[in-house]
Amino acid sequence: MILNSINWNVDPEIFSLGPIHVRYYGLLFAMGFMLGYYIIERMFKSEGIQQEWLDKLFMYVVIATIVGARLGHVIFYGWDYYSQNLGDIIKIWEGGLASHGGAIGILVALYYYSKKVTKRSMIWTLDRLVVPVALAAVFIRLGNLMNSEIYGHATDLPWGFVFERRGEEVAKHPTQLYEAICYLITFITVFFTYWKTKAKEKQGLIFGIFLIGIFASRFFIEFVKENQEAFEEGMTFNMGQLLSVPFVIAGIYYIYKALKK
């Protein structure tokens, strides 16, 4: 039988115990961070870096990711609503996280972390941190798939998903999977670049590869993704694309600077 589309009707909740609800998104989010911790622990040990630095880095990144991603969604995508309903900003459990906001939050936290903890260049930390972050991004997009959210336009391709829980009746691009695959390729690239080459000695090179791999793929995938907010209708480039461009430019800059040295 020829596959025409995939009917997707997965319950985002795995189970519940009274007021406690365990969802795939939260589980995948946590798995991404835990695997990330293990990866960077190995990296730090290989370089003889003290455990205290790792523990503080983990704390900074977790808090910065959640706060930054939430504020990113509030400011970039929903300010008209949240400016009139400030109390709803803290309602993270209702959904609404923006990856660009998470990235900005991490950068702010790492600036402080580098000044107060490592006393080393912020780029030194980023060259190592982006390896597990790329893997965590894969898990987050898989979580979006389990939530049947952030998908694309209608398609007649055989791998199109009919997101039944969203009331869809036609197949749509599973852009969550497109991004997850691109992020996985980025993770594999920076992982082997760190372990199998001398790239970590060229400060900014791994960070630059990460920025281009994550945000260039995000930019192009947005062309087949449905807009997240009404105000994006009619825009040549949507908000996700506009926010991705500075990161791609920064990636090109850091790669050029690293190779020039």
Automatic annotation (TrEMBL):
<dbReference type="GO" id="GO:0008961">
    <property type="term" value="F:phosphatidylglycerol-prolipoprotein diacylglyceryl transferase activity"/>
</dbReference>
<dbReference type="Pfam" id="PF01790">
    <property type="entry name" value="LGT"/>
</dbReference>
<comment type="pathway">
    <text>Protein modification; lipoprotein biosynthesis (diacylglyceryl transfer).</text>
</comment>
<feature type="transmembrane region" description="Helical">
    <location>
        <begin position="204"/>
        <end position="224"/>
    </location>
</feature>
<comment type="similarity">
    <text>Belongs to the Lgt family.</text>
</comment>
<feature type="transmembrane region" description="Helical">
    <location>
        <begin position="91"/>
        <end position="113"/>
    </location>
</feature>
<feature type="transmembrane region" description="Helical">
    <location>
        <begin position="177"/>
        <end position="195"/>
    </location>
</feature>
<feature type="transmembrane region" description="Helical">
    <location>
        <begin position="60"/>
        <end position="79"/>
    </location>
</feature>
<feature type="transmembrane region" description="Helical">
    <location>
        <begin position="20"/>
        <end position="40"/>
    </location>
</feature>
<keyword id="KW-0812">Transmembrane</keyword>
<keyword id="KW-1003">Cell membrane</keyword>
<feature type="binding site">
    <location>
        <position position="141"/>
    </location>
    <ligand>
        <name>a 1,2-diacyl-sn-glycero-3-phospho-(1'-sn-glycerol)</name>
    </ligand>
</feature>
<comment type="function">
    <text>Catalyzes the transfer of the diacylglyceryl group from phosphatidylglycerol to the sulfhydryl group of the N-terminal cysteine of a prolipoprotein, the first step in the formation of mature lipoproteins.</text>
</comment>
<dbReference type="GO" id="GO:0042158">
    <property type="term" value="P:lipoprotein biosynthetic process"/>
</dbReference>
<keyword id="KW-0808">Transferase</keyword>
<keyword id="KW-0472">Membrane</keyword>
<keyword id="KW-1133">Transmembrane helix</keyword>
<feature type="transmembrane region" description="Helical">
    <location>
        <begin position="125"/>
        <end position="143"/>
    </location>
</feature>
<protein>
    <recommendedName>
        <fullName>Phosphatidylglycerol--prolipoprotein diacylglyceryl transferase</fullName>
        <ecNumber>2.5.1.145</ecNumber>
    </recommendedName>
</protein>
<feature type="transmembrane region" description="Helical">
    <location>
        <begin position="236"/>
        <end position="256"/>
    </location>
</feature>
<dbReference type="InterPro" id="IPR001640">
    <property type="entry name" value="Lgt"/>
</dbReference>
<dbReference type="GO" id="GO:0005886">
    <property type="term" value="C:plasma membrane"/>
</dbReference>
